């Protein structure tokens, strides 16, 4: 599962509609593929010479096909980028496609050996990178990262990106995915409500417990979560484990070490979640509610905190009541002996882009991506989507929204920026954690049952020879 | 004349047969072939692995549990749907009071027919949206709101419905196989029945209308009650239709994909924690969300096993309901 700002949230809600439409949609790429074949002989174009300004040797008048995910970020930034590319390479027609379901629409293209030149691999269902790499169908992006940047050929592309961007797209130690948007995650709340009720944002478990009891007296749930989409609570589990056990805990978890899910940090996390459920601090019925309903509960003052990413404000824009000021807080410490300091923040690049290797114009795909990482494009992305791109300093001086300002502040103050790797490596384990944690918060399980259930899946994944294993080294 | 007929028939058959071959037979054959390989769904290169995928199916606990869920659906859904449809069809056609001459349905029967048939014209996506609101697990959910206002449900402990994994029967474990009937699955069956009754009601209605009225009149003259009329006259004469309905519903019960995807929690549906997973939903999850590099081939093996089970079921049902002597009227 990738970290997609439009969130995996959309999963259930509209999947039926999409599945129904899939049959129809599938036909569209097929037709365009046929069309592409027909015109291929005529104006395929030639590759150009590799120069400093043209590091991949893009030829004049070479057609390019780019496919974007049409989700939380909308279509505007893609259109802006396409116009800029066409201006830079006059005569090279860019075929811009949008999809709401990348996997369904583009799986046949990979299988057919005619993928687009650049693919925005983001949506509730993405092309799994592992199997595609096994068939040598993806371009190693080292070439792009080592190339001179769009604005200044003296500065390499990799040096213009915020820390952690390249690492987030590694598979088997090589960069195949370039994540374009930088999301900051944490506990979101309404500043206005906190001010009027005299609440303060908790820094440790005791403060949280006291706040939760106070809120309970005011008939407000201290916490809620996007129940039917287990990916959100999966993240809360990981943040708590990190607070308690630090990187050490995740070296074990990410590397599937035996009994990684029985270590103390995990036990404490499970106990805290169970405590929240048992003491009635969680919104009633949350485990059966969807993301918009629970997120709205926070906006409506029915719940204090919900875990989410920095896309939250954009996602809920239409239903934010006047006066509500969304802000984000880092996860609080869950015990006095926690290994991580308060302020530690989970932030990660998401919204991946991949360059297929068997397309007609992979050089153009690389060049398009290089251009997107240029200053002008990156800033426009921030303006249009109210989200941060992975390009350093792209949104400096932009005061886009209260939520984003708060997120940037939290990120800047963070003593440590954290992320876990197994999320992109072992899907069954991600599912198991989310499911088991949902059961905990619904009051249907115990910390021991949680640890046993997750450890069982972790062992199965470790044993399964058909799942390619990855190694976390730092 | 005979010479001219073959091309004529072939001309008519060509288009449908072509469509059938391209969209049904070829995919079937390819799925069968992929199920014996380690195909990953993306790369045109793959190797042959024999029956390995099928053997692994027997070890997949979620799949075995999903088969159990389909078995529960197969037991409950067709029977309840047919019984309800028969009852309503009888009431709408011959269940009216016998105080006046003639045999007719209850008052307002055409309106009822319309109401019962209505779910049939809704797309499954709309059905999913409606029922998610009905089952919603807080005071915004229809059922919860009603029960809360009656004081039957605590506002702090709303009923979870689609997020409820508790089984209504004690779970039975046989090795890796589990048979349980979680509340969420029962909710899905209820939605399926709601959506299906109307169609079979119309089917049975049409069949009942073709039964000569004089048979009923004779029965009434002999003093038969409505219940007796139903069991002694109507049901035997509807035997054919009921067996057709039985087979359709049985096949639908082995699918159930759309409802699971549309209504249940989790990525790709089937939640909470696989409590509502059915064979087809788990097949899709296995194809793309399993992290194993040959997930697609494994899912193909699953698909083949579903096809096999469906054909077996249809075969058994055809055999059981094979028509005996037909009554001409």
Automatic annotation (TrEMBL), chain A:
<dbReference type="Pfam" id="PF13416">
    <property type="entry name" value="SBP_bac_8"/>
</dbReference>
<dbReference type="InterPro" id="IPR022386">
    <property type="entry name" value="Chitin_NgcE"/>
</dbReference>
<protein>
    <submittedName>
        <fullName>Carbohydrate ABC transporter, N-acetylglucosamine/diacetylchitobiose-binding protein</fullName>
    </submittedName>
</protein>
<comment type="similarity">
    <text>Belongs to the bacterial solute-binding protein 1 family.</text>
</comment>
<keyword id="KW-0732">Signal</keyword>
<dbReference type="GO" id="GO:0030313">
    <property type="term" value="C:cell envelope"/>
</dbReference>
<dbReference type="InterPro" id="IPR006059">
    <property type="entry name" value="SBP"/>
</dbReference>
<feature type="signal peptide">
    <location>
        <begin position="1"/>
        <end position="35"/>
    </location>
</feature>
<keyword id="KW-0813">Transport</keyword>
<dbReference type="InterPro" id="IPR050490">
    <property type="entry name" value="Bact_solute-bd_prot1"/>
</dbReference>
<dbReference type="InterPro" id="IPR006311">
    <property type="entry name" value="TAT_signal"/>
</dbReference>
Automatic annotation (TrEMBL), chain B:
<feature type="transmembrane region" description="Helical">
    <location>
        <begin position="296"/>
        <end position="316"/>
    </location>
</feature>
<keyword id="KW-0813">Transport</keyword>
<keyword id="KW-1133">Transmembrane helix</keyword>
<dbReference type="InterPro" id="IPR051393">
    <property type="entry name" value="ABC_transporter_permease"/>
</dbReference>
<feature type="transmembrane region" description="Helical">
    <location>
        <begin position="183"/>
        <end position="203"/>
    </location>
</feature>
<keyword id="KW-0472">Membrane</keyword>
<keyword id="KW-1003">Cell membrane</keyword>
<feature type="transmembrane region" description="Helical">
    <location>
        <begin position="245"/>
        <end position="264"/>
    </location>
</feature>
<comment type="similarity">
    <text>Belongs to the binding-protein-dependent transport system permease family.</text>
</comment>
<keyword id="KW-0812">Transmembrane</keyword>
<feature type="transmembrane region" description="Helical">
    <location>
        <begin position="7"/>
        <end position="26"/>
    </location>
</feature>
<dbReference type="Pfam" id="PF00528">
    <property type="entry name" value="BPD_transp_1"/>
</dbReference>
<protein>
    <submittedName>
        <fullName>Sugar ABC transporter permease</fullName>
    </submittedName>
</protein>
<feature type="transmembrane region" description="Helical">
    <location>
        <begin position="67"/>
        <end position="90"/>
    </location>
</feature>
<dbReference type="GO" id="GO:0005886">
    <property type="term" value="C:plasma membrane"/>
</dbReference>
<feature type="domain" description="ABC transmembrane type-1">
    <location>
        <begin position="67"/>
        <end position="317"/>
    </location>
</feature>
<dbReference type="GO" id="GO:0055085">
    <property type="term" value="P:transmembrane transport"/>
</dbReference>
<dbReference type="InterPro" id="IPR035906">
    <property type="entry name" value="MetI-like_sf"/>
</dbReference>
<dbReference type="InterPro" id="IPR000515">
    <property type="entry name" value="MetI-like"/>
</dbReference>
<feature type="transmembrane region" description="Helical">
    <location>
        <begin position="111"/>
        <end position="131"/>
    </location>
</feature>
């Amino acid at each position: 599962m990738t970290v997609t700002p439009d969130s995996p949230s959309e999963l259930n809600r509209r999947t039926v509609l999409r599945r129904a439409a899939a049959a129809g949609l599938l036909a569209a790429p097929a037709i365009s593929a046929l069309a592409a074949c027909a015109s291929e002989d005529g104006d395929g174009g030639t590759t150009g010479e590799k120069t400093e300004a043209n590091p991949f040797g893009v030829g004049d008048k070479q057609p390019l096909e780019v496919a974007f995910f049409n989700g939380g970020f909308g279509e505007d930034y893609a259109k802006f980028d396409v116009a800029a590319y066409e201006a830079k390479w006059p005569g090279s027609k860019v075929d811009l496609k949008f999809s709401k379901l990348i996997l369904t629409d583009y799986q046949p293209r990979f299988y057919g050996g005619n993928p687009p030149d650049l693919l925005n691999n983001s949506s509730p269902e993405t092309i799994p990178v592992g199997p595609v790499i096994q068939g040598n169908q993806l371009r190693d992006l080292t070439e792009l990262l080592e190339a001179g940047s769009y604005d200044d050929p003296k500065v390499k592309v990799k040096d213009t990106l915020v820390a952690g961007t390249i690492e987030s797209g590694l598979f088997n130690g090589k960069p195949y995915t370039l994540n374009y948007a930088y999301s900051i995650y944490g506990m979101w709340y309404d500043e206005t409500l906190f001010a009027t009720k005299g609440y303060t944002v908790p820094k440790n478990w005791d403060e949280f417990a006291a706040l939760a009891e106070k809120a309970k007296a005011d008939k407000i749930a201290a916490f809620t979560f996007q129940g039917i989409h287990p990916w959100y609570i999966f993240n809360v589990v990981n943040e708590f484990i990190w607070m308690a056990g630090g990187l050490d805990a995740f070296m074990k978890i990410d590397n599937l070490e035996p009994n990684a899910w029985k270590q103390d940090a995990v036990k404490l996390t499970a106990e805290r979640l169970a405590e929240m459920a048992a003491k009635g601090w969680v919104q009633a019925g949350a485990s059966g509610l969807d993301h918009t309903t629970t997120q709205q509960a926070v906006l409506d003052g029915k719940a204090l905190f919900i875990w989410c990413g920095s896309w939250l404000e954009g996602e809920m824009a239409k239903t934010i009541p006047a006066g509500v000021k969304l802000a984000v807080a880092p996860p609080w410490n869950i015990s006095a002996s926690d290994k991580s300091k308060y302020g530690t923040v989970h932030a990660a690049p998401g919204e991946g882009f991949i360059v297929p290797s068997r397309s007609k114009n992979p050089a153009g795909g690389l060049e398009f991506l290089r251009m997107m990482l240029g200053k002008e494009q990156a800033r426009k992305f921030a303006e249009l989507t109210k989200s941060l791109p992975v390009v350093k300093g792209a949104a400096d001086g932009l005061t886009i929204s209260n939520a984003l300002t708060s997120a940037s502040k939290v990120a800047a103050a963070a003593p440590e920026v954290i992320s876990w790797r197994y999320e992109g490596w072992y899907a069954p384990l991600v599912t198991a954690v989310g499911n088991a944690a949902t059961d905990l918060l619904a009051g249907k399980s115990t910390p021991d049952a949680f640890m046993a259930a997750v450890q069982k899946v972790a062992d199965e994944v470790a044993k399964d020879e058909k799942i390619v294993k990855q190694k976390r080294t730092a | 004349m005979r010479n001219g007929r073959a091309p004529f028939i072939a001309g008519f058959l060509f288009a449908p047969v072509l469509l059938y071959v391209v969209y049904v037979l070829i995919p079937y054959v390819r799925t069968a072939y992929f199920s014996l390989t380690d195909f990953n769904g993306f790369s045109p290169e793959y190797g042959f692995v024999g029956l390995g995928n099928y053997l692994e199916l027997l070890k997949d606990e979620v799949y075995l549990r999903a088969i159990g869920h389909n078995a529960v659906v197969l037991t409950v859904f067709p029977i309840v749907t047919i019984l309800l449809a028969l009852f309503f069809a009888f009431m709408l056609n011959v269940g009216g009071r016998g105080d006046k001459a003639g045999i007719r349905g209850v008052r307002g029967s055409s309106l009822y027919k319309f109401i019962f048939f209505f779910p049939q014209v809704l797309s499954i996506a709309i059905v999913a949206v409606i029922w998610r609101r009905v089952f919603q697990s807080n005071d915004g959910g229809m059922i919860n709101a009603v029960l809360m206002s009656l004081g039957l449900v605590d506002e702090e402990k709303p009923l979870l419905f689609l997020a409820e994994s508790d089984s209504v029967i004690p779970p039975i474990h046989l090795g890796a196989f589990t048979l349980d009937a979680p509340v969420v699955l029962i909710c899905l069956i209820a939605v399926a029945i709601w959506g299906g009754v109307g169609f079979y009601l119309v089917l049975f209605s049409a069949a009942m209308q073709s039964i000569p009225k004089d048979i009923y009149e004779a029965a009434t003259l002999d003093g038969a009650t409505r219940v007796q009329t139903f069991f002694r006259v109507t049901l035997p004469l509807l035997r054919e239709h009921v067996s057709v309905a039985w087979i359709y519903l049985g096949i639908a019960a082995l699918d159930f994909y759309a409802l699971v995807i549309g209504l249940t929690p989790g990525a790709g549906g089937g939640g909470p924690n696989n409590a509502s997973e059915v064979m087809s939903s788990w097949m899709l999850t296995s194809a793309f969300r399993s992290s194993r590099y040959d997930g697609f081939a494994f899912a193909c093996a699953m698909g083949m096993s579903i096809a096999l089970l469906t054909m077996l079921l249809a075969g058994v049902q055809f055999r059981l309901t094979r028509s005996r002597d037909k009554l001409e009227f």
